[in-house]
Write a structure and sequence with these properties.
216 residues; mainly alpha; globular
Amino acid sequence: MLKPALYLAGLAPLLWIGAALGGGLVDGDPVEFIQHVTGRSALVALFVTLSVTPARRLTGVSELVRVRRLIGLTAFWYAGLHFASYLVFDQMLSPADIAADVAEHPWVLVGFATFLLLVPLAVTSTAGWVRRLGGRRWQRLHRLVYVAAAGGVVHYLWLVKQDLRSPLYFAVALSLILGARLWVARDGQRPRSRARAAVPAATSPPSFVAPGEDIL
């Protein structure tokens, strides 16, 4: 039941964009509206992805881990739509206009760098890539999600010029999520440390990092 609900939730921003544009509900610039909805949707999905591990620890619902990849890919696709709307509708795919806009507005470069960080995470999100890279290397790569989340918030904060409440809400939410993940990581290390201390070094089993356990 969880996956169908997530598919519907993932489609909701697109349906809202279509309904708002088709129904004449957008008062301002329609391109700005599209970018606003897709950008916020990408951040929300990315934050939900980061919340899976603390939520699973608090609730004991193991099914949350199985839908983490779906939520993460939803964040990537909305970030891609956000970036594509900028390239196509804002800059008309003009390299000169894009370069001039980046020089004038550095937050565009931050947003572009953030999207590029999400690309390898999306590409390597499958079990096949976990096997190719190995659990530890895969996890090190996917720690880029923290940088991407922070970059998305910085991009949003830098972009907004007057009412900073919305991007500040995202900044506070990210701080809380990262704090919860740090608590989970520290809490999870204590029993494992005691268990390792009770096993002689010569007979200690090889360590194994479950793919995606503490990342994404």
